[in-house]
Amino acid sequence: MALISQLFGDEIYDPFLTMVNKCPVLNAPTDWKETPEAHVFVSDLPGLKKEEVKVEVDDGRVLNISGERNVEKDDKNDKWHRVERCRGKFHRSFRLPENAKTDEVKASMENGVLVVTVPKQEVKKPEKKVVEIEEIKG
């Protein structure tokens, strides 16, 4: 292990994990911010079109963002010298809080940036009931 650290630093070198961690399509880096009105998710999906991305909310209040960058069609006369751009499927899931209006989610995409907006609703706090204490005379 010490030799690996000397050669590659403290990070263990695994070509597959290195590719996944550095590949925006497979990793789909996503920011989540909360505004007074909504939860906003912003995902970087360079090179993808909206038709290649799917946004869903399941019954358990989980926001799912998924998609795939397909391999380009090959011409039989083509000779590849290097393939470095990521291809493949990705899937990200986020558990939405109770105040999310899951039936009003909106999504838009421009220049490879997906923006998903989940409006918020006021969550009714449980009411406190004061229980009167009786005095027992005995």
From TrEMBL:
Query: How is this protein named in the record?
Result: Class I heat shock protein-like
From the record, what ranges are coiled-coil?
none
| Pfam families reported in the protein's UniProt record | HSP20 (PF00011)
Q: Which domain of life is it from?
A: Eukaryota
Q: Where is the SHSP domain?
A: 21-136
Primary location recorded for the protein, binned into one broad class: cytoplasm
Q: In which family does this protein belong, per the annotation? A: Belongs to the small heat shock protein (HSP20) family.
Q: Where in the cell is it found?
A: Cytoplasm
What organism is recorded for this protein?
Answer: Herrania umbratica
Kindly state which keywords UniProt assigns to this record, in alphabetical order. Answer: Cytoplasm, Stress response
- GO cellular component labels: cytoplasm
